Amino acid sequence: MSNGLPQLRLLHLVSPSLPVGAFTYSQGLEWAVECGWVTGRDSLRNWVVDLMQTSMTYLEVPLLGRLYRAAADGDTDAMAHWSHCLVAARETRELREEERNRGRALATLLPELGVPVSAELLPSIRQCQLAGFAHAVGHWRIPLQQAVEGYLWGWLENMVLAGVKIVPLGQTAGQQVIAELTALIPGAVVTGLQVEDASIGASCTAQSIASSLHETQHTRIYRS
């Protein structure tokens, strides 16, 4: 394997073209726009920063670190445990369904990309995309810090592009937000990977309210 191939594999995993349905979810943002919480570039930036500094830094990042190590050790019990923890931490039906839908899609896709998925590991990967992502980056020997940075950047791009469509915003404004918030990713990775087991978890009340009300929003284009 050449030195550059792991990085290219990571780009593949975080690409918006990866058929796991990431583009169909707004994680409550659609309702936040509908009710007037997010109305333009600055409020979109604030919404995404809040999610990055709560849910992503104190939930996804530390869990990705644990799933990465569990995959490297072949510890299917730990993979199952941390996958269940992520789903249990989701505060609405929509967010839990998103985890499972994206997990099932990735579980189907990985073998087609040359990443074997054992029968013992399959239930964990079907629980949440994060488990399949951890398994894939480990298989492709992508270093943990790079993997987490890539995961966060992929999430950031998806959230901002959802805002560009829903608010709506110009493409340049969206790219400005992405460029600005990309600078926050390294710090979020460092902080998140240092979170201890007892401190894992995050509650973003605004997102929980938005996601709950989005379930019955009359007109919507996103699944959550």
UniProtKB/TrEMBL annotation:
Keyword field contains DNA damage: no
Pfam families, A to Z: UreF
Entry keyword annotation includes Cytoplasm: yes
Major localization class: cytoplasm
Source taxon at top rank: Bacteria
GO cellular component terms listed in the entry, alphabetical order: cytoplasm
GO molecular function: nickel cation binding
Keywords per UniProt: Chaperone, Cytoplasm, Nickel insertion
Cellular location(s): Cytoplasm
Similarity field: Belongs to the UreF family.
Its biological purpose: Required for maturation of urease via the functional incorporation of the urease nickel metallocenter.
PANTHER family in the cross-refs: UREASE ACCESSORY PROTEIN F
Subunit organization: UreD, UreF and UreG form a complex that acts as a GTP-hydrolysis-dependent molecular chaperone, activating the urease apoprotein by helping to assemble the nickel containing metallocenter of UreC. The UreE protein probably delivers the nickel.
HAMAP family, A to Z: UreF
Protein name: Urease accessory protein UreF
Naturally occurring in which organism (per UniProt): Candidatus Sedimenticola endophacoides
